From TrEMBL:
UniProt superkingdom: Bacteria
Keywords for the protein's UniProt record, in alphabetical order: ATP-binding, Nucleotide-binding, Transport
Annotated InterPro entries: ABC_AA/LPS_Transport, ABC_transporter-like_ATP-bd, ABC_transptr_urea_ATP-bd_UrtD, BCA_ABC_TP_C
Lineage, top ranks: Bacteria, Pseudomonadati, Pseudomonadota, Alphaproteobacteria, Rhodobacterales
Keyword Transferase attributed: no
Entry protein name: Urea ABC transporter ATP-binding protein UrtD
GO function terms (MF aspect): ATP binding
Domain ABC transporter: 5-246
Organism whose genome encodes this protein: Paracoccus marinaquae
Pfam families (UniProt xref): ABC_tran, BCA_ABC_TP_C
């Protein structure tokens, strides 16, 4: 199977410090992947490079069936090409309802006049209902986002990203700050989402990663240290030394 995202030989230094060091790996279509690694391993920098926020010094990042280089695209072009990113902290519009947040996130006409004239249609309201249901918020649609629990806000933001129909969703530390029940619901959600798109989850919480039950990539000092099932990488002496055993 050809890769959806292919990172080859990517390096990035900040003031001479190699945050990413000759990193290569690939994500397949509709794959669920966890990325783990100690603090400073380069996980955030990797996501910054894929989304166009940071430009690497060398290497290549290719996307889709035409192996298009993401390095020649702006952040907005990359987002439009189908890569959505969920940051660690939820950034929803707290004063607005769940429904209004989702309506704002829908793919709407983008020209300045088209945006001014655009009103949510019956079709887009139905789509909003579907999105709310998909992230477990069907019963909360009229509530203000600010009244939701931390976990519900995270799901709302995932719903807002889904409105853009991404082919790859990058999710940064979703478990942080969630209750156990919310973490369990989030693993179920991410697994389901990965049935129809690729989902890459950066996470420190090993119980959460175990429940994802997917291939794991371990980063260390900006390079790939190990890859495979969680049991496989957990048994790797290098991984135990730099990460799990500490
Ligand atoms: N803009 C920057 N300027 C200077 N150094 C940076 C910059 N961004 C990242 N770094 C450094 O690059 C290294 C990798 O950082 P990165 O944030 O990618 O790691 P991480 O794996 O996401 O860590 P954490 O688990 O703590 O979030 C760190 O040593 C960090 O200090």
């Amino acid at each position: 199977m050809s890769a959806l995202l292919e990172v080859s030989g990517v390096s990035k230094s900040f003031d001479g410090f190699k945050a990413i060091n000759n990193l290569s790996f690939a994500i397949a279509e509709r794959e669920l992947r966890a990325i783990i690694g100690p603090n400073g391993a380069g996980k955030t920098t990797f996501m910054d490079i894929v989304t166009g926020k940071t430009r690497p010094d060398s290497g290549e990042v290719r996307w889709g069936e035409n192996s298009r280089s993401l390095l020649r695209m702006s952040e907005a072009q990359i987002a439009r090409a189908g890569i959505g990113r969920k940051f660690q902290r939820p950034t929803v519009f707290e004063d607005q309802s769940v429904e209004a947040n989702l309506i704002m996130a829908l793919k709407a006409p983008r020209g300045p006049f088209a945006v001014l004239r655009w009103r949510p249609s019956a079709g887009s309201r139905a789509r909003v209902q579907d999105l709310a249901a998909e992230v477990g918020l069907a019963g909360q649609i009229r509530r203000k986002a600010g009244e939701l629990s931390h976990g519900q806000k995270q799901w709302l933001e995932i719903g807002m990203l889904l409105a853009q129909e991404p082919r790859l969703l990058l999710v940064d530390e979703p478990a942080a700050g969630m209750t156990l029940a919310e973490r369990e619901q989030t693993t179920t959600l991410l697994k389901r989402l990965a049935e129809t798109r690729a989902v890459v989850v950066v996470e420190h919480d090993m119980e959460f990663v175990r429940r994802l039950n997917c291939k794991v990539t371990v980063l260390h000092q900006g390079s790939l240290l190990a890859e495979g099932s969680l049991d496989h990488v957990s048994a790797n002496p290098d991984v135990i030394e730099v990460y799990l055993g500490r």
